[in-house]
Amino acid sequence: MKRLALIALAVLLLASAAEAGVTRLEITRREPFAGGQPFGTAGAYEKVVGRFHGELDPAHPLNRDIVDLDAAPRNARGRVEYSADLYVMKPVDLARGNGALLYDVNNRGTKRVLVQHNSARLADDPTTAEDAGNGFLMRHGFVIVWSGWIPGAPAKPHDLRVQVPVARGASGRITQTVWDDFQFNTAAVTQARVTFPAIDRAGATLQVRERSEQAPITLPASAWEFVDDTTIRLLPAGTPFRIGALYQLVYRAADPPVSGIGFAATRDLIAFLKHERADAVGAANPLTAGGAPAVRRAVAHGTSQSGRYLRDFLYQGFNEDEAGRIVFDGMNPHVATGRMFLNQRFAQPNRGASALYPDQSFPFAYETQTDSLTGRRDGILARCSARGNCPKIIHTVSSNEYWYAVHSLVTTDTLGRTDGTPPANVRIYHVAGTQHIGGRGGAMPKGVCSLPSNPTDVRPVLRALTLALDAWVKDGTAPPASRYPRLDDRTLATTEQLGFPRLPGVETPAGPIVRRRIDYGGEWSRGIFTRVPPEPLSPPYVSLVPRVDADGNEVGGLRLPDVSVPHATLSGWALRAAGAGNAGAICGLDGFILPFVRTAAERQATGDPRPSLEERYRDGADYVARVRQAAAALERERLLLAEDVQRIVDEAGAR
Questions:
Q1: SS in 3 state form for 567-631?
Q2: What's the rounded Cα separation, in Å, for the pair 504 and 485?
């Protein structure tokens, strides 16, 4: 018996040594949300706020591709430790929820899903009924989870952070030449913060160019300086950076954080919340009922930066936990084309899209394709397909991504000659005539873009498709067929084929931003760049854009009533204004609106080729009736919810 007891103890110790993931959970706050107000059948909600701690075995097959994990300090068990913030909103009685966990990948530390789905205001610490917006996610019983994943994020109250170790070389600190890109959209910026502390200020260089296609000019050392190791400024002190100009700083840094842990931290947290019992680690799993996990499926949503995080999470093989189980059953990458600059040495996940950053590199499509420029075969889902752990995917995109982020490469071959074939577990919906952040004003400061920003609201589509994704995961109910511009129906085109009308006061773009292959040096296969700055290679990939009709509105994709029963030209692109620097270039993430004139006489007087409102609709009632018909058709296709149909009709009546 004693021998059997020793064997049993040894087995327990070995099992403990083999397990990693979340090791401790600290709950620092637990409080009612919205004053205990009930939300439909799900009842009252509460917030659970805290921090979780985890550890990773560098030798585990699922961890071996985390760059520099093998160079991080280890604890007594030979593991690499990390910790991250956790924020949960859940029904007080989990049995009244819908059994689904919705993980919102935070965007630069902030919680966005209540803005995106509930039409709520942005709140760092959602507390009041106003912070719940229309209550959509709560009324449908979702558990909502956020956590930190960005190493080195600014320490702001209620923002979400992850703490990871820095890598060390065999002989001490790791140092490397790195680069930062800057573009400023106000005329008053006098200092710029760099990503990593500079360890050799004297050896740094700063270049500037007005437009991306121009050769850069190196500024003399007398024209700029470091204020401290993490901040630069132009000289004399107080000189503003030129609005719209493109600056590039090359400098030397040390002590790279093991940033790829940001993927593993999400993987391990979701696995813990889905599978661990209440007494599994140092504090109870907050999503348990009767001691057992209360969530039966997990879906993820990410917007822009955080949508790219989800695509790279899949591509790099993190949708499988260390026990071999699927992590996310469904995903909605929203307005996201590329991947993340995260699992590399000296990564910069908080930077916006740049032509030189690796988040914009092949592969682009979900299916495995051949890169026509290199002969390489790869796809976003190549790894999860091989291991059988791909989630259901609903990918939503605005018009802006075609112009600013080369979204056409997600649905075509790399030369833009043929349509791709997304896998059966993927749906792609292009919401026609929308800008990157739809329905909440422009991303650019006023005056940077030459026309008013596009107000078309995409949130009704996100609500409908969130329920469609959950149903697809829960019981296999397939969502509507994909809707996006294609080559075979001539709704996807080159800029020359665009067909945009000549409108008064509107200049058309020369073309979308192009994407090139980048040479990062000979160690790039290990996630280490040795060529700084990296070198763009020719020829570029081929970028295509949605074709438009005689009004300038897009003819393909999912057309909301604002586009199918138009009152204006609604575009996903805009151009920079003359006084904003880089005039005529694509104006970042914004689109524009140009309303139709009211009468035929006004149209003729202004030279506007678009029929006026009185030429299109008999009267206001006719317009509202057509909007109702268009919205109802989308509802029948499960692309809008009944509550949003009525809201859209009411807005049309007010218009």
A1: CEEEECCCEECHHHCCCCCECCCCCEEEECCCCHHHHHHHCCCCCCHHHHCCCHHHHHHHHHHHH
A2: 27
The encoded tokens of residue 60 equal: 């585990």
Residues 307 and 351 in one domain: yes
Closest CA to 174 of 301, 79, 106, 72: 72
HSE-CB of 292 using CA atoms within 13 angstroms: 4
Between strands 162-163 and 143-147, the pairing is unpaired
Residues 97, 63 share a domain: yes
The SS3 assignment for 180 reads strand
| 428 and 411 Cβ atoms separated by less than 8 Å | yes
pLDDT at 354: 64
Length of the chain: 655
The token pair at 110 is 């902030």
Closest CA to 349 of 339, 358, 360, 341: 341
**Rounded to whole angstroms, how far apart are CA atoms 104 and 97?**
17
Instruction: Please check whether residue 136 is in contact with residue 118, taking contact to mean a CB–CB distance below 8 angstroms.
Output: yes
Phi-psi region of 286 (alpha: psi -120 to 50; beta: other; left: phi over 0): alpha
Q: Are 542 and 373 in contact (CB under 8 A)?
A: no
For residues 289 and 377, membership in a common domain is answered with: yes
Do residues 345 and 296 share a domain? yes
With a CB cutoff of 8 Å and minimum separation 6, the contacts of 114 are 120, 123, 126, 131, 132, 133, 137, 144
Rounded distance, CA 493 to CA 629, Å?
Answer: 29
Query: Closest by alpha carbon to 536, among 216, 245, 251, 244?
Result: 216
245 in any annotated domain: yes
Q: Which range marks the domain in which residue 245 is found?
A: 175-254
**Model-wide pTM > 0.85:** yes
Residue 138 and residue 68 share a domain: yes
The three-class DSSP label of residue 279 is coil
Sort residue 563 into left (φ over 0), alpha (ψ -120 to 50) or beta.
alpha
pLDDT of amino acid 2: 38
CA–CA distances in Å: residue 434 to residues 136, 516, 559, 576: 22, 26, 10, 18
Across the 655 residues of the chain, what is the mean pLDDT of every consecutive 10-residue run?
34 41 94 97 98 97 97 97 98 97 95 96 96 98 98 83 96 95 93 96 96 91 97 97 95 98 98 83 78 93 96 98 96 96 95 74 97 97 97 98 96 98 98 90 91 96 98 98 98 96 94 93 94 93 97 98 98 95 93 97 96 97 98 98 97 91
> Do both 30 and 139 map to the same domain?
yes
**pLDDT computed for residue 23 by the predictor:** 94
CB 149 within 8 A of CB 302: no
Cα–Cα distance list, 101 to 327, 405, 418, 536 (Å): 11, 30, 38, 41
* Residue pointed to by tokens 């706050």: 29
